[in-house]
Design brief:
alpha/beta; 7-stranded mixed β-sheet; two-stranded antiparallel sheet; 5 helices; globular
């Protein structure tokens, strides 16, 4: 079964964290919240307080099949300065077709900062944030799947993004079942 490591920082965008986690767990995927802060407890961008499963310094990322970066102001901390273990993992594994890198809103910019996007990988992000870092890779779509990267444009497409991940890792049938159960339009 696919294991997803969800990176969480203070000021992570609430909906971009909570909606995908909920959808993925309903689908039966194993999802672990990993705080990049020094403690498990974080405060999201709109004041929601959550407790993560583990802190990054104590977690082995190689046991996961996917790394997910939600957006919001917190994604600026998914950097070499604040999260060197995360960046090192991404730089080592980004060409591994068995490990997926997923991000939404502003977080796809992290992939550019980590220098893991070649000119064949396409991504989306929050409109207007593609310049200048993502210009060569940017596609104006709600959700983009390209090689082992899955990206979403922003909070309004958090559900669509989450269902696309279910479709990719389980099946289109399972994604459609969840969409129907959850009254997704």
């Amino acid at each position: 079964m696919l294991k997803i490591a969800v990176m969480v920082a203070n000021q992570t965008e609430d909906i971009e964290l909570i909606v995908p986690i909920d959808v993925w767990r309903r689908a039966g995927l194993i999802v672990k919240l990993i705080s990049i802060e020094k403690k498990k407890n974080v405060i999201l961008s709109h004041g929601t307080k959550i407790s993560c499963d583990e802190v990054l310094n104590k977690e082995n990322l190689s046991k996961y099949n996917a790394i997910y970066l939600p957006g919001g102001l917190g994604c600026t901390r998914f950097s070499k300065e604040f999260s060197p273990r995360l960046v090192a993992f991404g730089q080592k594994e980004y060409k591994n077709p068995k490990i997926f890198f997923m991000a939404i809103c502003a977080a796809p910019l992290c992939f550019a900062d980590w220098n893991i996007l070649d000119d064949t990988v396409k991504v989306t992000c929050y409109p207007g944030m593609e310049k200048p870092k993502l210009e060569d890779n940017y596609v104006k779509q709600d959700v983009v799947v390209s090689k082992n990267f899955i990206t979403g444009a922003g909070p309004g497409v958090a559900s669509e993004f989450a269902f696309k991940v279910v479709e990719k890792f389980i099946s289109a049938t399972k994604a459609k079942e969840l969409e129907k159960e959850m009254l997704f339009k």
